[in-house]
Amino acid sequence: MERQKAMLAGYFGELARARETGLKVVYTFVPGNLTELIRAAGALGVYPEVNALQSAMRQRSDGFVREAERLGHNEDVCSYVKCDIGMLAAGNIGPTGEKLPPPDLLLLSYTGCFTFMKWFELLQKEYGCEVAMLHVPYQADGRPTEEMRRYVAAQLEGEVIPKLEKVTGRKLDLDELASLLARSARAEDDLSWVLDSAKATPSPIDAYFGGVYYVGPIFTAFRGTEACEAYYRELREEVEARLARREGPVMPNGVLAEERFRLVIEGPPNWTHFRDFWRVFYDEGAVVVASTYTKVGGLYDDGFRHGRERDPLLSLADYCLGCYTNRSLPARSDLLASYVRDFHADGFVINSLKSCNSFSVGQLVMMREVEKKTGVPGGFIETDLVDPRYYSQANIKNRIESYLQMISQRKAGGVSSGA
Amino acid sequence: MGLFVGIDLGSTTSKAVVLDASERLLGRGLTNTRSNYDVAAAVARIEALDDARFTLIERTLGGSGAAPPTSALRRAWVVSHCVDRLRALGGRVAAIAESTGTASDGAAIRRLFERIEADADAVFGTLAEDRSRFFRDLASARFFADATDAAQRRELAYDVAAAAYDQAIVEVENSETPIGAEQRLERALGRAGLSASDRASLERAWRETEGALTVEAYVGTGYGRQRLPFPKEQIRSEILCHGLGAHALYPGTRTVLDIGGQDTKAIQLDEAGLVQNFQMNDRCAAGCGRYLGYIAEEMNLGLHELGPLALEATRAVKISSTCTVFAGVELRELLALGERRENILLGLHRAILLRAMSLLARSGGVRNELTFTGGVAKNVAVVRELKSLVGEHYGERTLNIHPDSIYTGALGAALFARRGGGESLPAPSRGKPKAAAAAARA
User: Which terminus has fewer CB within 10 Å in chain B: N or C?
Assistant: First the structure.
């Protein structure tokens, strides 16, 4: 945690000095991001969703969202967008208190969320900078075809890389890219091991509330760096030790004494009340053993690693295509059902977000599918990303407690149903 | 004999149910929650225990041909308690009216309350039998009728009296009457008009039941359950309690729909009353009981008048929003367009049910019988529309609505108290029909 904080602080510092150091700045999004490519081009990445969630965790998103609404953005617009627009209006001071540099390039690397396009359209209007758009075909059949891979790689070659080169004024170093991808793969191996460790009982990690910290470096600007590789090596060693001691996960109030429930969670967390939201679970001894949100940047479950495909552009294409939100609803349901089974979960909970249609659409259908596949009832809660007005602690607590009591009654009832 | 108490602290009403060790229903208590959960819990619990005491007295004295009229004492007990609250209320209303209006407003209000008190038996007597009504409903109905008359006779300023009443009733409901049981018994005995021998045997029975009123276990549930001074093991979610309560009332039911003040829940049960799945509305209370309350206020009607009026509709107006905030706007718009009040009301009732139907579908549909609980189950228009919508979606299904469905959650909680918590379920099957029979009898 401390290492991650230092990494983040260092990076935002680097961004604040970008104008002096002459480094170019690329704004891009987390799902299927092209971090290694940006780094190999010698530029710095800025991830607006991460800024928004960081602002929310620091209790600053409320003001930003309201500012954006004052500027005319509707209540129903994605709260990440409004938080970003509000932050921009307030001087573009980032979550760490340092000013964020304006973008030299807006790189839209994932088109599965249409709001992303509109978001960058707004930013383009504001900054008047270059835009590179990568069209990533949706995996309607659950997996990418060869044509899709080649289509994405061709866009990287013909659109994205030339734009990057134009902005940075230098030729992309393909050797540098390859070595970044190799380092990414090593970090990805370690992260996958860590997330897999939750199959143990008790789980040594919480794969959602803890998990969002674990995926922080790899889904943002750090993937491919030495610091990132070191972070995941250290994380893995720490979790290995905890596993050997049969210790539960570390919660905000210390190591969890007793694992009473094992849950799978679908959907991003609420960021404005992150600690309160987490407490609802750990107060009841509920540990999240697997989550789909920790796959939102990229999915490593089926063996994907950066650079494993020798052609670096195809490798990047595979990553873009494979991110969780680019999967069809049946593929997402299958993944959830496999988590419930493989991680021996007692239940699964869907956190549906008021302002994120691209995540929330179809979740009720998915819930029914997963129930059918696993025989485990799902719980359904509704919050939002960074708009605090859509989070109600009493409501969430009521719902989750009821759900867990039902699970525990089912467990007990299943045993004594012959009585 | 040990008693088992379930308390359901709802957002609108608080309920308590008392069972004996054989899971037979002994007593029930009900009060408005308003803003104070602590007082509401205490009032409901005390009422239920008092009610249980009379049931025990009836059991002790009943049977023999010359049994003294316990029911007369029970009724007098309830009425004299209402009189205590009425006096507190009258004093407050008059005092507020004196400060906001004139001294003569205050004096007129005092006279008005004296007249209500003189009619106390007629005004409040039904509360002893009808355990799903409140002091507030009855006192308010009478007060506003009398105040309207008095205003027409120019004895008081209606707006002053009404505003004072609205403020005072909240204060009175949120405070407990500081009158001890002995003093209350004395008054009730006086009011019941008993013969000397009846009075003596009732007094004796009263003392004898003293020792029987030991509460062995409490379980709390409902929206305000965290406020109950119980350890965590004695708190159950209302989902489990409604499920178990509904199962006790209708052992065959597999699906329960509860529409309460600010929650709508669709619950699926197994054959033992264990919850298999459930769905609830989101944090927004659109389409819940509170919505109807708001509509009633907007239309200047009593909550109980909405359903019957809606039944007089010739068609249902399409309502686009079940949002409690927007409902008022839409309502005024439709009225301004000349739409009949009845037709709008029917549309509003349907809108609520469309939301409930979606929760039912989410939770797994209606499998066999549907048991409908919660305050909204009292609304005749909602019931009629629910029946037709369930028929449309799932075919012919039995719809169970218990006259005392408001107590379902508290009954479930009391059953949990008796059975020592969720983990020890299912209970011996002999317990269930008894509770059901007892509730049906009451």
Answer: N
In one-letter notation, the amino acid at residue B295 is: I
Q: What is the pLDDT of residues A382-391, one digit of tens each?
A: 999 999 999 9
Residues of B in contact with A408 (CB under 8 A): 422-423
User: Which residue, among A272, A406, A410, would best test binding to B if mutated, counting the most B CBs under 10 Å from its CB?
Assistant: A406
User: What does the pLDDT read at residue B323?
Assistant: 65
Give the pLDDT confidence of B141-194 residue by residue, as tens digits. 999 999 999 999 999 999 999 999 999 998 888 777 767 778 888 889 888 888
Tell if the CB–CB gap between B422 and A364 is shorter than 8 Å.
Answer: no
What digits encode the pLDDT tens for the residues A36-69? 999 999 999 999 999 999 999 999 999 999 999 9
Residue A377 with chain B: CB contacts under 8 Å: 276-278
What residues of A are in contact with residue B425 (Cβ under 8 Å)?
409, 412-413, 416
CA distance A322 to chain B (A): 30
**B424 touches A: beta carbon within 8 Å:** yes
Q: What residues of B are in contact with residue A382 (Cβ under 8 Å)?
A: 282-283
Bridge partners (DSSP) of residue B32 are B13
- Contact between chains at B240 and A377 (C-beta distance less than 8 A): no
pLDDT at B322: 61
Nearest alpha-carbon partner for A344 in A242, A404, A263: A263
CA-only gyration radius of chain A, Å: 21
Asked if the C-beta of B277 comes within 8 angstroms of chain A's C-beta atoms, the answer is yes
How close is the nearest chain A Cα to the Cα of B237, in Å?
5
Nearest to A377 by CA among B222, B374, B269, B367: B269
* A412 part of contact set with chain B, CB < 8 Å: yes
- Helix H or strand E encompassing B271: none
Flag whether the ipTM exceeds 0.90: no
Confidence (pTM): 0.84
CB contact under 8 A, A416 and B425: yes
Residues of chain B in contact with residue A401, where contact means CB-CB under 8 angstroms, are: 237
Residue B278 CA: distances (Å) to CA of A116, A152, B260, B412: 35, 43, 15, 16
What CATH architecture is B251-401? 2-Layer Sandwich (3.30)
Q: Which of A408, A403, A376 is nearest to A280 (CA)?
A: A403
Strands across the sheet containing A347-353: A286-291, A261-266, A347-353, A378-383
Peptide bond between residue A137 and the one before it cis (omega within 30 degrees of 0): no
In angstroms, the CA A110 to CA B92 distance is: 66
Q: Where in chain B is the domain with CATH 3.30.420.40?
A: 251-401
B377, amino acid identity: A
From the options 3.40.630.30, 3.40.190.10, 3.40.50.11890, 3.40.50.300, give the CATH code of A2-171. Answer: 3.40.50.11890
Contact yes or no for A402 and B238 at CB 8 A: yes
Whether B236 and A405 lie within 8 Å, measured CB to CB = yes
